[in-house]
Amino acid sequence: MMSKTLKWISILLIFLLLSACDSGQIFHKIRPGGKILAFGDSLTFGTGAEKGFSYPAQLKRLIARDVINAGVAGEVSADGARRLPALLDEHEPDLVIICHGGNDLLQKLGKQQLQDNLRRMFEAVNQRGIPMVMVAVPQPGLLLSDADLYESLGKELNIPVVEGIIGKLLSDPNFKSDQIHPNAAGYDRLSKAIADKLMELRVI
């Protein structure tokens, strides 16, 4: 009877361990004053909204954590992959949020190249033991659905992905400033979707 009980306890412990490791990364509660690096292109920079209304600025107010805006408008993923390591070493963030790839998709630079560069970004973050969340970017077109590479890369590398939100915002005139950028209200919605993901991961 005792051996059966120990067997079931062992099975339960293995199950709990696998569940805890399901994300492939270790997410810890970020203390007040902890740092989050928001890395990306114009969608992170906040193009389309006045200063102070980018998604990182609104996320900072929403979750009471220091969210550093490391967005560069017009940047392609190859340049982003080169830029990221120095920022990680400079800021030593508790978490990284990457929203990148829109310019690659608009310029038709190739999905494989984008996927490779996003993988390079993940490797730079992962090598430093920092957890990472990715925000999916829509494929240009009528439907504005997420480019499928974000879902596949998320599964491959076990990266939590915020899905569907940017395309949804850009499909609604109330939340966009132009065809490829949200307005302040749109960035507010984006910051809330990201905050929901962070709460789901129990980091805030």
Describe the structure.
The N and C termini lie far apart (43 Å). The chain is of the alpha/beta class. It is globular and about 40 Å long. It has a five-stranded parallel beta sheet. It has one domain: SGNH hydrolase (Rossmann fold). The protein is built from nine helices and five strands; from the N terminus they run αβααβαβααβαβαα. About 7% of the residues have low confidence. The longest helix has 19 residues. Helices cover 50% and strands 11% of the residues.
Observed structural traits:
globular; Rossmann fold; five-stranded parallel beta sheet; alpha/beta; 204 residues
Summarize the structure.
This protein has 204 residues and is an alpha/beta fold.
Low-confidence stretches: 9-23
Q: How many domains?
A: 1
The radius of gyration over CA amounts to 18 Å
Output the helix-strand order.
HEHHEHEHHEHEHH
How far apart lie the N and C ends? 43 Å
CATH topology: Rossmann fold
Helix content: 40-55%
Strand content: 5-15%
Major sheet strand order:
2-1-3-4-5
Fourth-tier CATH superfamily name: SGNH hydrolase
| Biggest sheet descriptor | 5 strands, parallel
Overall geometry = globular
- CATH top level label: Alpha Beta
| Strand-pairing-aware structural class | alpha/beta
